Amino acid sequence: MPNLRSTVRWMAEQTARLTGLERFGDYLTLLFEVDMLFGNEDRHLNNIAVLRRGEDFGYCPIFDFGAGLLSNTQDYPMDIEPKSLVKQLHARPLDTTFGRQVQAAREIFGPQLQCGLTMQDISDALEKPLKLYAKRDAPFLRDRVEMCIRVQRKKLGV
């Protein structure tokens, strides 16, 4: 493909042609936006999916965020400031930055993500899971998650 936008358009058009899902480009854009928000580097072609019911197709719930929120401590060590780590995030499946991937999709299909969560909502949601971690680690994990979402949210404009 000559450029990223052409690749995104081709992916959406081919999937729509094969499945009849006319708004697949909107879905793909939303998927890229959500991946950017959570810094999910593991969106590969095997987890961009549709549901098949007999001869009909439907949109799949967005799933597989196992590589999000700076959770890969081999690539994103705990002793480095999270804000600098967020700058290193890399988007798949198009092998580019999240910003470029989202921009290419938005230029064709427009923005899709609407985010009503506040940073307080996110902080509150972290309370219970962080109790499962060692007390010494919980503040670092909180900082990583909140920083990732804060920075990416600002870039997304949501």
What's the overall geometry?
globular
| Average of pLDDT | 95
- Strands, total number: 2
Structural class: mainly alpha
Q: Give the count of helical stretches.
A: 6
Instruction: Give the percentage of residues in beta strands.
Output: 5-15%
Q: How would you spell out the order of helices and strands?
A: HHEEHHHH
**Strand arrangement across the biggest beta sheet:** 1-2
Please tell me the total number of domains: 1
Largest sheet: 2 strands, antiparallel
Q: What gap, in angstroms, lies between the N and C termini?
A: 30 Å
Q: Low-confidence spans: pLDDT under 50, at least 5 residues?
A: none
Structure report:
By secondary structure, the chain is mainly alpha-helical. The chain has one domain (4-156). The chain has 6 helices and 2 strands; from the N terminus they run H-H-E-E-H-H-H-H. The chain has a two-stranded antiparallel ribbon with strand order 1-2. Strand 1 (50-53) and strand 2 (56-59) form a beta hairpin. The longest helix has 19 residues, at 138-156. The relative contact order is 0.18.
List the helices and strands and how they pair.
Layout: H1 4-19, H2 24-38, E1 50-53, E2 56-59, H3 82-86, H4 98-109, H5 119-130, H6 138-156
Antiparallel strand pairs: 1-2
Helix pairs in contact: 1-4, 2-4, 2-6, 5-6
Sum this structure up briefly.
This protein has 158 residues and is mainly α. The chain has six helices and two strands. The protein is 50% helix and 5% strand.
Question: What key phrases describe this protein's structure?
Answer:
2 strands; 158 residues; two-stranded antiparallel sheet; mainly alpha
